[in-house]
């Protein structure tokens, strides 16, 4: 099997060297870049298996890079793990809303970072939406093949992850999904995402669905469901 390729994006050379050294020891191929514009060029050209993306970058910051990649059909499915300094919860939440898959705070343990990367890369394949039948739940229409959501006929712009979460819930209205079940259905089993990340995606979904956001119900102590 070919070694997975990791794109590491950070403007601090010592961080690049540290991350690349430890991932190379774990037998991953590493590509290192130091600014946002170069990150976009490299991601589009090389189609890496995972991107470790610092938020504080020259030219284009990490949030801009994340938004562009997640809105590009050619790169939207590449997992993005944000590297961020502690105390930047607002940026973390924003990044997750844009479609980032998870985050690691600085300073970090190299062993933990490698373990998280391994967990992402060994996740099971996720069921494809292609060929799945469109779903209509009252005013909400979901077309998996087109990756399109309309509410009362008006298009709703969702991130890739938000769309997947909505599709998972809407396929079985009334069924309660735990956060772990949602993560497994969206990303595959073993994906190291936090409960906080799932909650952020739910908040984003409700906000974008507007008056129909209450179709997504919270079941305290369990998880979420799409209202019957």
Provide an overview of this structure:
With 228 residues, this protein is an alpha/beta fold. The chain has 2 domains: 5-121, 3-Layer(aba) Sandwich (Rossmann fold), CATH 3.40.50.2300; 135-226, Winged helix-like DNA-binding domain superfamily/Winged helix DNA-binding domain (Arc Repressor Mutant, subunit A, Orthogonal Bundle), CATH 1.10.10.10. The chain is built from 8 helices and 12 strands. It has helices spanning 13-25, 36-46, 62-70, 89-98, 110-121, 160-171, 179-187, 195-209, and strands at 5-9, 29-33, 50-54, 80-85, 102-106, 135-137, 140-143, 148-151, 154-156, 177-178, 216-219, 223-226. It has a 5-stranded parallel sheet, with helices on both faces. β8 and β9 form a beta hairpin. The model is unreliable at 124-128 (pLDDT under 50).
The fourth-level CATH homologous superfamily of the largest domain is Response regulator
Sketch the major β-sheet: 5 strands, parallel
By CATH reckoning, the class of the largest domain would read: Alpha Beta
Question: At CATH's second level, what is the architecture of the largest domain?
Answer: 3-Layer(aba) Sandwich
Radius of gyration: 18 Å
Hey, roughly how much beta strand do the residues contain? 15-25%
- Structurally, how many domains make up the residues? 2
Task: Give the tags.
about 40% helix, 2 domains, Rossmann fold, about 230 residues
Element layout with pairings:
Elements: E1 5-9, H1 13-25, E2 29-33, H2 36-46, E3 50-54, H3 62-70, E4 80-85, H4 89-98, E5 102-106, H5 110-121, E6 135-137, E7 140-143, E8 148-151, E9 154-156, H6 160-171, E10 177-178, H7 179-187, H8 195-209, E11 216-219, E12 223-226
Parallel strand pairs: 1-2, 1-3, 3-4, 4-5
Antiparallel strand pairs: 6-7, 7-8, 8-9, 10-12, 11-12
Helix pairs in contact: 1-5, 2-3, 3-4, 6-7, 6-8
């Amino acid at each position: 099997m070919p070694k997975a390729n990791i794109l590491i994006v950070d403007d601090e050379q010592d961080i690049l060297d540290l991350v690349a050294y430890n991932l190379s020891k774990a037998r991953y191929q590493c590509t290192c870049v130091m600014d946002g514009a170069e990150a976009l060029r490299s991601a589009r050209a090389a189609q890496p298996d995972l991107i470790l993306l610092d938020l504080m970058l020259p030219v284009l910051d990490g949030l801009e890079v994340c938004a562009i990649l997640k809105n590009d059909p050619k790169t939207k499915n590449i997992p993005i793990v944000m590297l961020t300094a502690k105390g930047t919860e607002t940026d973390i939440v924003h990044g997750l809303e844009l479609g980032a898959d998870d985050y690691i705070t600085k300073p970090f343990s190299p062993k933990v970072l490698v373990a998280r990367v391994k967990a992402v890369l060994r996740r099971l394949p996720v069921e494809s939406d292609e060929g799945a039948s469109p779903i209509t739940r009252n005013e909400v229409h979901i077309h998996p093949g087109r990756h399109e959501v309309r509410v009362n006929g008006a298009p709703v712009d969702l991130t890739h992850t938000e769309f997947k979460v909505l599709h998972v819930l809407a396929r079985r209205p009334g069924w309660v999904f735990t956060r772990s079940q949602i993560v497994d259905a969206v990303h595959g089993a073993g994906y190291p995402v936090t409960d906080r990340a799932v909650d952020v995606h739910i908040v984003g979904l409700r906000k974008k669905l507007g008056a129909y956001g209450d179709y997504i119900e919270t079941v305290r102590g369990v998880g979420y469901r799409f209202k019957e």
